[in-house]
Amino acid sequence: MESKIQHSLLLFVFLLATCPTVRADAGNPRVNQVGYLPSGVKTATYRTEDSEPHAWTLHKNGKAIAHGKTSAGLSDASSGDRLQQIDFSAVAVTGSGFTLRIGTSTSHAFSITPIAFRAPLYDTLKYFYHNRSGIPIATQFTGSGNTSFASNSQWARAAGHVNNAVNMGDLNVPCWEGTCRYTLNVPKGWYDAGDHGKYVVNAGISVWTLLNMFERGMFWGTTTQFEDGKLNIPESANGIPDLLDEVRWELEFMLAMQVPPGHPNSGMVHHKVHDLNWTGLPLAPDQDPQQRALVLPSTAATLNLAATAAQAARIWKGHDSVFSAQCLQAALSAWAAAHGNPVYLYRGGYDSGGGAYDDANVADEFYWAAIELYLTTRDERYLPTIDAYTISRSDFNWANTELAGLMSMATVVVPFSASRRVAAQKKIIAIANTHLLTQNASGYSVPLAVSEYDWGSNGGVANRLMLMALAYHFSGDRAYANGVTQGIDYLFGRNAFSTSFVTGEGTVVAKFPHHRFWAGALNPGFPLAPPGALIGGPNSGLQDPVALKQLAPCVARPATCWIDNIEAYSVNEVAINWNAPLAWVLDFQNHMAERSAR
Length: 598
Fold this sequence. Notes:
six-stranded mixed beta sheet; alpha+beta; three-stranded antiparallel beta sheet
């Protein structure tokens, strides 16, 4: 992910028509442009300065099929918009070509169908294959299967960072000068975001989220959507669920980042690997000429491996016992190394070619790793670390991982952890309640307070929806499932821009994410992004020159701090830790559709 104290790049000038600095009022009422579930809550938002309710009409392919009245107008603090709400949940008609009309104002088209989010789920998961390091991205795997789009050679590319020709690569990568005397082979993994860096701490939360999605399905009996052949990836037809194959590509990178035996700090894990200096856009991974280097080990990275490798060990046990054992051994050695080096804190200093991902507090990582190891091994020596920790946060991200541990404790069934599991479930329900309150106070149903539109706010929304979804599983209270639906609505177009924040999903969508290969906005020799990439979204921090110049007045209205510009990395980047929770919540939404159909 691009650093907040960012490298200097040649800024490209775009026509205002392709990068508007003001919000258009097209597509009003604002709707989820992908669609709605027949049995779910169906809400749209109408932007108007009027206070009195308006009459609305629902049309299907131009024919009126339902009508009603909007709510009274209220101000939305985060956007500054005056809004009215349209509730058409009672509509049971299915199909496509629906629009909502108020006077001469018309929404973008949408569908009402139980399969509205099926293809978007696979599109979102295809993101990870497209961003693999160390392997050619082959045309036949770039789409098709269960995705919404066909395979296309425009997205194919040579293997990146494999030490060919100009490309220095991730084979025999040395440590940053003066920090160690060995090299490591770390060619696998996913490129983290718009850059070509690979960061263990962001890999950790992304791997955990995808494996938690799979594990949630195991305990609720819904994993067939990830079975072998579903994702159309090179490993399809190997007898292993495709989701696990995709995640393993990243896990094997994380495992390779561990300091080998016989060297100082053996068992610790290098924090990250990336170029010595920032590269510009556009740039295909195999054309990157920069020297790569391992950044020194950190306790945070080590505990990320301990947690995710322990999680993987129990999940792979029935699929590949050898890999399961390898993961468990790596987790145990990482845990021991972290205990021996509890304050190897990465505070920056090696960030001239990659994001810092500095983390000065690792108590939460110790808690998370202890839970994953306990659930896998049932060894009670991890319980003191678990029981001594007090949950204080209501959200989670790569730097704050305590809720990842809590969510695993609440989900994984281990006989002698029943009381802790129940306590964890109650805590998650309490946290979800706070997010519902915030969401209900938002005119666009966003579970973010005015002060919480930070870097990657859309990923933060998806993370909070995960907590709501689990609260529904634990309580059966439909209010939490409705909260998930309304949060998904926001991401897919029911927002201040009437624009879907997911590439290719909807009528008016984000098109120009900050990405070195999906850089067709800068050079027609490069492709635009395929469908399924969640962009970072509104961010009042404006930590890049383009966003700062074009959006500065937005700070008082943080939900409007976004522009679809490839150079505006602080608001328009993509990242593995944002796509992972989007996949999680779309999988939940599909699960809800299946339950309703039974």
